[in-house]
Amino acid sequence: MKQLLLIIILALIFVPGISGFQPQNRPVHIFMVGDSTMADKDPKAEPERGWGQALQALFDDTVKVSNHAVNGRSSKSFIDEGRWEIVLSSLQSGDYVIIQFGHNDQKPDEARHTDPPTTYKRNLMKYVMGARAKGAFPILCTSIVRRKFDEKGVLADTHGEYPDVVRGIAKEQNVPLLDLQLKTMHLLSELGSEKSKSLYLYAPPGAYPDRPGGVEDDTHLNFEGAAAVARMAAEEMKALKLPLADHLKPSLSQTAQAWSVRMAESLMKRQPEPGMIKGFAAPIWEYTQGLELKAVLNVWEKTHEQRYLDYVTVYYNKSIKDDGSIPQYKLSDYNIDRINPGKPLFRLYQITGDEKYKKALFLLREQMKTHPRVSTGGFWHKNVYPHQMWLDGLYMASPFLAQFAVTFKEPALLDDVANQIILMERYARDEKTGLLYHGWDESRGQRWADPVTGRSPNFWGRGMGWYAMALVDVLDFLPADHPKRADVSAILRRLADAVTRVQDQKTGVWYQVLDQAGRADNYTEASASCMFVYALAKAVRHGYIDARYRDNADRGYAGILKEFIEVDASNLVNLNRVCAVAGLGGKPYRDGSYDYYVHTDIVSNDPKGVGPFILASLEMEAMKR
User: Fold this and answer.
1) Beta-sheet pairing, 388-390 with 439-441
2) In a domain, 93, yes or no
3) What are the CA-CA distances from residue 341 to residues 284, 320, 495 (Å)?
4) pLDDT of amino acid 280
5) CATH at 108
6) Are 83 and 214 found together in one domain?
7) Is position 392 annotated as part of the catalytic site?
8) What global pTM score does this model have?
9) Number of domains observed in the structure of the chain
């Protein structure tokens, strides 16, 4: 009899949901019930996001978020449709249920409407008591605010009594409360009428394929808004000292391994005025600015911390006039480098809808319509370098043009982009090593050009780095069914094979002249190494190349941190051993010789190294997540 009793007791203990026990291998579950401001969204709804969609990324692997929120539901209709019963059937002891209704409870239709002090309160109590009956922990949320400002710029209340009912139940029943109405009200009031649009569903015509006419919605959130509200919810959990908060990840900016953030912070401290990245007294329109600011913008995309976005917009708002003109830019120079600063404008236009950004994009596009070309269609590097294609130029213009083609529906432009990449490989690739020479002169008139092939004499590390980055960035926009995508993908695979063959086995990084590792005065160089790690890591992460190259990216990144990164007494991150500049021809004449490349100036914290280091770090951090 005692043995039978012991078996029954053990069975009860080890049945999930009884006596508060959860299987050790089962993660903590957060079930979310609510309306469209919380719900997961279909990709076709971009840029719309529910804040529940952004919550999983804030927790470690011991937590699983199951988002059951549905567009258009109220506290009543969610129950009447049987959706709450589905959640209850899955709940186990120790789980959490986050509850947010209110927006649709205000609707007048019978299927959804509830009265705040009566039916709304009763429904919320059903959620609270139902969760507790299963041994789960309910968490109540007030609804996020609608973006409605009066003529004086004061945020108006649109929820009436509903939030106070939620607060009352939380107090009466001792239920944790995430007061998102109060938190979002403070945030929007601080941002004001115009800036707060950056959190809501605003997009200009043409910015998203499934919203050709654009959208203006003051209730629903975009990517940034969803992430911001999810962080608010997490902050409230920490403030309430909920056990659930113990499972939150450190924010990216707090993570010791987040070199992307540390370098972005160091850049901003060294150069508080982004228009003077290169030490000029006024903003200039240069590829170096575009490179670093695109990297900082990507840090903002990951952290959603406003100061990074502000840093980027300061430069562009100073550089671009309301009519879209760029005083420091001259189209007739036909300098392909000057296209690169335009890349962040796509995102800024999506976020703000500011027409000056769109006009500037079209201005840069206009240059490339008449930019000089070689006889087969490849772009000259610059008007002052006639008949020449350089590897650098592929990065400066190709990703920009690919994104322009997709954003503004110019599909024929994608054919041109693919052809630029194909032509560059055709003219510059060495069949023996698979590496690409820095430049090619169709006229064979330059002293650096081989009289037969037209190629420059050496494989410059950063030159190939530019080309590698161009490939992975173009593939982001080249459709899967594009007839030239297979060709571009094959070029990337050939490049990955060639580049990893000359990766230094001892340090994991790459040399200034790629195939001359043992030669006098050659040195391991930071910018090329960062570019290769970025390209390899991104290509692996997106499935563009075989996963075996992950090891090359890992070894390369470890080598970068060991060989080039130094943290000074002020805790600023420095990137050392960057080739300051290298080119072909010009005055004084650059002959592309080995001696020329290894004796160019070597500097620290040059934008051509800092930008790729941030980009490489973001890719490596994304792979680890």
Assistant:
1) antiparallel
2) yes
3) 10, 11, 26
4) 65
5) 3.40.50.1110
6) yes
7) yes
8) 0.68
9) 2
